[in-house]
Amino acid sequence: MTDTVMISERRPRRFSGFARWFVTDIRGALSLTFLLALLLISILGPWISPYAPAAQDLDAAMAQMSPQHWLGADDLGRDTLSRLIYGGMASLYASFLAVTIAVMIGVPVGVLAGYLGGWVDTVISRVIDSFLSFPAIVLAIAVTGALGIGLTNGMISVGIVFSPQLARLVRARTLVVRNELYVDAARCFGGSTPRILWRHVLPNAIQPVIVQVTLLLAAALLAEASLSFLGLGIQPPDPSWGAMLARAYQNMEIAPEQMYPPGLAILFTALAFNTLGESLRVALDPTMKRN
Amino acid sequence: MIAAPSSGVNLHMFNSARLRIIGRRLLQAIPVIVLSTFIVFGLLKLVPGDVAVTLAGDNASDQRIAEIRELYGLNQPFFLQYGSWLWKAMHGDLSNSLISNESVLTSIQRCLPHTLLIVALALLTALIIGIPLGIAAATKPGSWIDSIVMAIASLGVAVPNFWLGMLLVAFFSLQLNWLPATGAAPLMKDPWAALSHAILPALALASGGIAEVARQLRSSLVEILSSQQVRTLHAKGLPPSSILWRHGLKNVSVNLLTVVSLLANRMLAATVVVEAVFAIPGMGGLIVNAAMHRDFPVVQGVVFAMVLIVVTLNLLTDILYSVLDPRISS
Fold this sequence. Notes:
By secondary structure, chain A is mostly helical.
């Protein structure tokens, strides 16, 4: 009974907190709106895109911007706007996939290292250090080479490569949380280690992860673009923003304007993820809120 | 702490405490290097199915498959495979390419200079542009200069390096015809050609670095300039320029060192894609081609070389750190 009362008390306050954030933090709000709009466009892609992404119309090859092709067409006469919409879907899917994998590996490893301490922590920390010594994309390329070329394999690689960053962050946070009184209390009440980790340590160690995940989404987006640009990510005829740039690069001397739509799309999306991440960092930081 | 202008620091640069710290750092690097080699070798274990059959490619003869099995010692237990690979790698034998049969070490020796030139030039560019931006922003926090610098920094982090490279080629090479669009030249034989080929890729690579240097410098400088000590210096009547140069920048130089070593790592990664845009025969082209054709000895060789460079740079940073920062030795 008390639980329901508490929740109903808390809910409106939390909502007004969000509303206040949305109104005061213009950059954060803009970024969030932009990203949600992008997500919506990606989901609605099949219904709103004017052409099929792989539909070729050689009469329209290298078409300039026109009422038929708002953003022109590529060398095979494929509509750039349609490919941009479908490419966005692929790029967003790829980023979320990579970051999900990074979270699934990095968070448990970090919590275990931080909570258990001792030799487990030493070993895990050294492994994290080693992984962080690898230039990220280079390692991702090597893992993709091993797993086999393709968007999903590429993003699994990127996820693996990003996971140590999260692990290190979560480990540091867990080191602080595990000495908190409520964790001691849970231990005294005989809570099992998995239960303590899941119910008490993880929820309190997760906050910096939310910020880092947002920033990693930008990094993953750029990584997808890089891998697809190199031909190690998405395979033709499927579009992604990186693959579109690769195509535009080949035709740069004939149709240089084709490199602007995908490039700007990557730039603005990465910018939005980064800006949202910074906003969240400020909004979630209790010491900053009071000021 | 405010570093006092002292000339005596150099005399004590390598006192016994510092040497001990340097020794400890060297020791700490060993497990990281060993684990890195383990990861590099372990890449092979990610190959699905029968490694030898997959690496031999389509339509490979049984003899070829047997050769590859022999090369990696795939019939032996994992640790023996790893051990013999490591032993050979330590003696500079990274075996041969499965495709061209060229020694991997030779390929790396041929490609590495091109990559290092671009990365070094990009680091330099990042510092030359990033430091003044950071100072300008930090001396007037909240001003329009600050806002512009921070906006540049946000864009610099978000812009894909290779797209920036394409824009630079389109403008400076194709339109203005100022600099060559693609290719590279050996630095030793023709330094001018080498530099003119490296300028655009280095600029493309530097964008993230400029942003990072400006941002880090700004935040650490703002912190120092608003500290109690600096307020005292103001009260003492010291001119602001002298406070900035002798007390502010001297203190943040150590932070800058960390940023540089971080950037070197990131740029070594980003150069792979930038090299593709400018068709530079560097480490990037080497590993991308090898990954596409599952030329695994080359993939492993390049990753190994890169990680050795990063570990060495990190080590150098740590050592420089302990030399530069008087607090660390105490």
